[in-house]
Design a protein that fits this description.
Largest sheet: 6 strands, mixed
Strand content: 5-15%
CATH topology of the largest domain: Alpha-Beta Plaits
Number of strands: 11
CATH superfamily of the largest domain: Reverse transcriptase/Diguanylate cyclase domain
Order of helices and strands: HEEEHEHEHHEHEEHEEHEHHHHHH
Length: 384
């Protein structure tokens, strides 16, 4: 996940006398770049994940500092470092409260520290971490595309992950993601990574085949759900104009099985996108787990259209809803009363419709095989 706030503090806390004083929940924020900022004009160039550093020259009042923090949150920045001792003698309580409320890491560095050296050092670390991240992402893609060629990815991933351990993938997408230009897609990627809290080096985030992919290694089910749900909640709150759809694959054992989790996550995110559901877990999709894993779309269409053709034609001609009635009839295991209650329709009307449906289909719908054929057809129909 690149160089994070936590990494920076671990490696540079003593050297640059860093002290994190607020926004501790943003500890896993990854940093794309370090920028010196003394006025808000430069914020127009922020793409996300930037770490802002200021001496406070242009932010010498509490009001200006809080305004800066608000803009950084809006721009999805990784955090804020304030060089105290000259223009800012003491960081105000109001700023700390704001940063805590918005999970924006606020770090204090004393005036004696030479900021140019610190920024240069951190920039080199960021570059090295991003290079490693790219290599990891390429190795993970090899594991997805060519799982049998373990020599191509296993040794490369061994220094970073428990390759014999558990892996689980989550895919994120939105309308038009695959047609975005590179800059816009990178901005969205940075924002999503900022919203991914409590995950650092046991995960990786990358773009692949029209989706953003989040890989997690040896993460408990509870933590997995909290990370994904929290990310989606923060995305909805801070980017309401963009609808993100998410699909979670199954947990698998060993890196060689990563492709299985990917294919299942792809099925889940496809269903989420089609049904306009924010978060779909493959393991909770029921029969749709099987249907969404079928690559032969022509076969699925035939299995849906052929059995239901008489009802579809009748509905189109008479503006009726026999397909919907059949679906409810099978859903309620043949209970006329249950269908009547759900549709607020007289029982005799339902009896009449079911009788016509049986005639059109030339079946009494009394065998398990017949019911399964039509249930399957309706399931497939609901996939689109």
């Amino acid at each position: 996940m690149g160089l994070t706030i936590q990494d920076m503090l671990i490696t540079s806390e003593n050297q640059y006398q860093m002290k994190m004083i607020a926004g501790a929940k943003g500890w896993s924020n990854s940093i794309s770049w370090v920028l010196m900022i003394e006025d808000t004009a430069i914020l127009n160039n922020f793409s996300g994940k930037e770490l802002a550093v200021t001496t406070g020259l242009g932010f010498d009042t509490t009001e200006k500092q809080i305004n800066l923090a608000k803009r950084l949150v809006e721009k999805h920045a990784a955090g804020l470092i304030i060089n105290t001792g000259e223009y800012v003698l003491e960081i105000p309580k109001e700023l700390k409260v704001f940063c805590d409320e918005n999970d924006l890491p606020l770090i204090e560095v004393p005036w004696e520290i030479y900021l140019a050296d610190m920024i240069k050092d951190l920039s080199v670390r960021i570059f090295l971490e991003e290079t490693a991240d790219d290599q990891i992402a390429n190795a993970l893609i090899k594991a997805i595309e060519y799982p049998d060629n373990q020599e191509d990815y296993r040794k490369e991933l061994l220094p970073y992950y428990d390759v014999d351990g558990e892996f689980q993938l989550v895919l994120f997408t939105s309308e038009g993601l695959d047609t975005m230009d590179t800059v816009e897609r990178r901005k969205l990627s940075y924002r999503l990574q900022i919203y991914t809290e409590n995950l650092t080096h046991n995960g990786n985030f990358f773009y692949y085949d029209s989706d953003f992919v989040l890989m997690m290694n040896d993460v408990s089910r509870k933590d997995f759900d909290e990370i994904v749900s929290g990310m989606l909640e923060r995305t909805h709150r801070r980017m309401p104009e963009i609808q993100i759809f998410c699909g979670a694959g199954s947990k698998v054992q060993d890196i060689s099985q990563l492709h299985i989790s990917y294919k299942r996550a792809k099925a889940a995110v496809t269903r989420a996108m089609k049904q306009k559901e924010r978060y779909v877990k493959f393991d909770e999709m029921g029969l749709y787990r099987l249907l969404y894993m079928v690559d032969d779309t022509k076969l699925l269409q035939e299995m849906s259209d052929t059995p239901l053709k008489p009802l579809i034609e009748y509905d189109n001609k008479h503006n009726s809803n026999y397909v919907e009635t059949l679906e409810l009839y099978l859903k309620h295991n043949g209970s006329i009363q249950a269908v009547a209650e759900e549709t607020f329709t007289h029982r005799n009307t339902i009896i009449y419709r079911i009788s016509n449906i049986k005639k059109l289909l030339n079946t009494e719908l009394d065998s398990a095989e017949d019911k399964m054929k039509y249930q399957m057809a309706l399931y497939i129909r609901n996939m689109s």
